[in-house]
Amino acid sequence: MATSNWIGKGDFVYRNKKTPVFIRSNGPYLEDTHGKIYFDAEAANGTALLGYDHHILEQALEKTHNMPSLPSFVESKLRLGVAEKIGKLLFDVTHVHGRVAFEIGGAQAIELALKIARKTTGKSQFVVFQGGYHGRSGYTSQLSASHRYRKILGDWRIPVSRLPFPDYERSGFPGSKSQWIHWYLCEVDLLLQSEVGGVADNSSAVDIAALIIEPVLNVSGMVLPDKQLFEGIVERFKKAGVLIVLDEIFTGFYRTGKLFGFCHYNITPDIVVASKGLTNGLIPMGIVWARNPLLDKAHFPPGTHSATFINNVMALAVADTVLDHYSDWKTVEKDVAMIQNMLTTVIKRICKSSPIFKSGYALGGLGRLTLSKPIAGQIREAALSLSSLMPQPARLKESSDGIILASTGMAPDVINIHPPINLNALQLKELSNLLELLSYYET
Q1: What pLDDT digit, counting tens, does each position of 219-257 carry?
Q2: How far is CA 210 from CA 102, 206, 339, in A?
Q3: Which residues, in sequence order, are CB contacts of 216 under 8 Å at separation 6+?
């Protein structure tokens, strides 16, 4: 366990009472300094969709042999190739031609998307979901739901309006789900058509540059917005002339079983932001795809955007390699559907056998367990030691000594599950057995 007095303790590494120090990884497994093995069911905070695979890095290094680095303000064949691959992927699912811009990470890519929206529309305001999360940087923290992210930076604000929390189960709404959807869309209409919402004037013109939303809201408890609701919201904002920005940082690259999370809805975004799964967590990189002509010279001229490492050869080589892995994986949707089926089955079993777990669902390679108490952090920490979850001598023998789960401060009543999406049959069975041990947890 970590005991160093030389490292800052302000990040999530030190949120648990005991912090394992890892020295080795392979597939979905991590090994600590004591030889204990952990099954990573959060895939390095959602980044390691293909697991811990050193072959990706080796293949990427080969591509940098003749050109290990480049100056910032030059073009490269590698960058052009990555942009083309991403552009073609987005064209395949949107049937819209667009261009790709690069950034060094997810939060920075969100900022770039907002810059594109404001430059294009000339409008000033943004709209997000309550419970949304789009980063912790100075600018993106203004979009994210929790005030904790902004408070430490001081009291400065950009104009942001927040739609109601899109989670019927946890909304506290007194009526049926259909009644809630009707009420919700009426709230959207009020925002867009009346001055009382703060974004329209008395002629019903709206000063909104972009609607920025996630297909699944990870940080606020793996919230999957209702399809009718999500499509109704997007339709109304499009009709009002607002650009639709899809934050696919967590949901992109088959996490939800489809190439992008928005593919579950009948919508066409104007801008898509992706990161995490793009490089499998090996190196920071973010991309912004925008439909034509939003990123051409006339609308976004040279000098509008600049960053030192957006032509980082190693990052581009890793992204290029990871994209090839997705392209070569012909059964990806079928294989991720197997994870969804397993998670659906085990979540039902856990909720049936333990009063602590109320409900849950699975979509592709992600799952949600809603708790009867705000104790997700305690469960997550206990899961690092499986012996604490199950009374002796009933302990099952698994290859893992612990399991890494996800929970967030914004949703202390939810356990999030999102392992690597390329698990083999034995790993899938082991994950199922490990998750079922959660039903033994006692407060």
Answers
A1: 999 999 999 999 999 999 999 999 999 999 999 999 999
A2: 20, 11, 34
A3: 222, 223, 224, 225, 250, 251, 256, 261, 363, 366
Cβ neighbors of 264 (< 8 A, separation 6 or more) are 215, 227, 256, 258, 363
Structure tokens at 339: 């994870």
Per DSSP, the three-state class of 346 is: helix
- Residue 119's pLDDT is what? 94
DSSP states along 30-42: EEETTS-EEEETT
Task: Pick one of 3.40.50.300, 3.40.50.1820, 3.30.70.260, 3.90.1150.10 as the CATH number of 331-440.
Answer: 3.90.1150.10
Residue 245 three-state SS: strand
Model confidence band, residue 73 (pLDDT cutoffs 50, 70, 90) = confident
DSSP 304: S
**DSSP for 3-26?**
--SSS---SGGGSSSS---EEEEE
Provide the pairing of β-strand 29-32 with 37-40.
antiparallel
- Residue 24 in contact with residue 252, Cβ under 8 Å? no
The CA distance from 28 to 7, in Å, is 27
Q: Which of 198-207, 210-219, 373-382, 410-419 has the lowest mean pLDDT?
A: 198-207
Sequence-distant (≥ 6) Cβ neighbours of residue 352 within 8 angstroms: none
Q: How far apart are CA 213 and CA 164, in angstroms?
A: 12
Q: Is the pLDDT of residue 391 over 70?
A: no
Domain ranges of the chain: 61-328, 331-440
In CATH, which of 3.30.70.1150, 3.40.50.150, 3.40.640.10, 2.30.130.10 is domain 61-328?
3.40.640.10
* pLDDT above 60 (res 1): no
Burial class (CB in 10 A: 0-12, 13-18, 19+), 237: buried
Whose structure tokens read 């297909």? 215
Q: Which residues contact 98 (CB under 8 A, 6 or more apart)?
A: 87, 90, 91, 289, 290, 291, 292, 294, 295
As a whole number of angstroms, the distance between CA 106 and CA 247 comes to: 9
Query: Distance (Å, rounded) from C-alpha 73 to C-alpha 289?
Result: 20
Span 53-72, average pLDDT? 92
**Cβ-contact 230, 166 below 8 angstroms:** yes
Q: How many Å apart are CA 130 and CA 127, to the nearest integer?
A: 10
